[in-house]
Structure prediction request, 353 residues.
Amino acid sequence: MNNPTAGLRETAPHAVDAVHLEAWMAEHIAGFSGPIDVRQFAGGQSNPTFLVQSLQHRYVLRRKPPGKLLPSAHAVEREFRVIAALAGSEVPVARAHALCEDPGVIGSAFYVMDYVDGRIFWDAALPEVAAPDRRAIYEEMTRVLAALHAVDYAALGLRDYGKTGHYISRQVARWTQQYRAAETETIDAMERLIEWLPLHIPAGEETCLVHGDFRLDNTIFHPREPRILAVLDWELSTLGHPLVDLAYLCMRYHLPADELRGLGGVDAAALMLPTEAECVADYCRRRGREPIAPQDWTYYLAFCMFRLSGILQGVLARALQGNASSASALQTGRRARPLAELAWRLVQQSAEG
Prediction:
């Protein structure tokens, strides 16, 4: 079971005015009573995240960082909306309490949700889990992702949560724009991906609710069972193509273990983990869909790496500007280049194969 004070900063670079926050919570959150203690979590490269602890309850606050922000980035309003909509669905989420869009309270928009007690796994190899139990953790990830893609988003009031159709082409254009806005140096592999991706989009349109950042450390597992209690960090969620979400989950099989906490170069079977092919097959079985063509799968993987490179470039830009939410932002942002190079190698290998 996680210690709620583990991973908290001694000092908060985006400190919250506890007096103003407490007054706001008393007015907007049922059953709340102060006083409160507010401490920032060490993790989180995008939206600063805080533990808010009262005598009776623990909450989590997610806020936009201060300073100049990229267009449409740090959308805590969207996070709150989707978490609130998914309450009671087959997709486990923390209880959302209230959204504040008034920057006058603590300096930027924020929302408050419940703190969920459980396990967060940071290492894809799951060294802290007994080997026979590791597969169940990964199968639960696939199960929840399939459940998310099966959600009737219109029935949940999310019909206007994003555009339908042409998701990938719009995403390529968007992340090209975001990357350009945060660009600090020329990355040749990104230039090649920017040229190649719009010309090779797989045929077929599908639309569902997608998470956009669905990975192991964005989930909280039950303290003892291989069961997800809450999916976190919905900033990139929208209406989109399900196979992009699946490819993002499966990127872990290609990312280096030392730099990006992946399984690249690791013998998954020896660790009693499902292979990438098994993960994809399990998802397709749960969704009742045909196997994915190899060239299409390469595209989805390359696109996800391109998008993550764009995100990391934004982290780097904020670090250089001095308003990043994580102390490790500079180191994290520097990974944009090797990730883009990995994506381009996948494309080249697929063409050669």
